[in-house]
Design goal:
296 residues; 15 helices; alpha+beta; five-stranded antiparallel β-sheet; Endonuclease Iii, domain 2; DNA-binding; 7 strands; two-stranded antiparallel sheet; Endonuclease III, domain 1; 14% strand; TATA-Binding Protein; 3 domains
Length: 296
Amino acid sequence: MKNSILTIPIPKNFSFTKCLKFLNRGYSECLYKVDDSQVTRLIRLSSGLALIQITADSKNMFVSTKKEQINESDEKEVEAYVIDWFDINRDIQPFYQLLDTQKQTTKFSKKYHGLRLMGIVDLFESLCWCVIGQQINLTFAHKIKTRLVYKYGECMKDGEHTYYCFPLPEILLKAQREDLVSMQFSKQKINYIFNISTAFCINVINKKDLLGLNKEQQMEALLAIKGIGPWTANYVSMKSLRDMTCIAYGDTGLSSALHNHFATEKKPDNQTINEIFSSFKDWESYFNFYLWRSLS
DNA sequence: GGCCAGGACTCAA
DNA sequence: TTGAGTCATGGC
C-alpha cells in the first residue's frame, strides 16, 4: 500500500470540528468512521478504491490517502472529493448575514458557525439513502443501510477496522429480492432501489450529465424515476448536485424545526414554508440544513 | 398499544 | 387536483 498526504487550506467560516460533530451526531454510520479529531472512509476513484483519512489544524486540512498505487490524477480526485464533501469552496458569509437579520435565526450563525452543508458525493448512494429513509425512523434506516452495505459494498481492511463503500448499481441490480426482504427492506423500497439501479446501469441518469442541466431539468430527470418524489429530488439536489435553493417540502424534520423556531403549525403548509424561506433566497439549502441540524 | 418516522405510489372522485 | 389507502417495521 502506498500513502500520500494532501494539504487543503481552510477557508473563512469553516469549522472542521463542527463538520466532524455533524458526521458523528449519534447515528451508527457504516460508510465512515469518526474518531476524536479525524474521519476515515473508503472512496471510489476512477482507478480503484482508496482509503482517506482527514485531520486538520487551525489553518489546513490534511488528507492522507492509502491505495495500491497512487498517481497524480488520484490525488486530484481525492482533493475534489474532500472539497465537495465538506463544501469547502463556498463563501458562506452571505448566509450568515441573512441569519443575523432575524431574531429566530441569529442564534444559528453562532451555534453552528463554520458548519458546512455536508454532502453525499455519490449520487447513487444519495438516491438509495433517500429511498431507504422514506417514512421510517433514522435509526432503523441506518440499520438496514448497514446490512445492504455489508453484503454488497466493496471493502478494505485497515488495522482492526474494515471500511466499506456504498454498493455499485450493477451489483445491487443482481441482488436477490428475498435477500433484501430478509434485511427488512419493504417490497416497495426494493422496487425503488431496482428502478434507480437500472436507471444508472442503462445511463438514463448520471451525476455529470445532471450537473449540466438547469434545476428544472434536473428535477424532471429525477422525478421520472419511479420511487423518486419531490422530497428525494430536493434532498439529492441539495446534498449531491449542490443546488443551493432546495427546500425539503414534506419533510417531517423540517416541519418540526420550523415549529420549534417559528411557532408554525406542527405541519406547516408549503405557503408558510415559502414565506419563511423567502428571507434566505439562494441559501435555502443551507437554511434547511441548519434547521435539520437544530433537531439533534 | 398506538402513533409516528428525514415519502411515494395508486386509485377514485 | 386532491384526498384516502397502502406499504411495513422499529422506536418511543
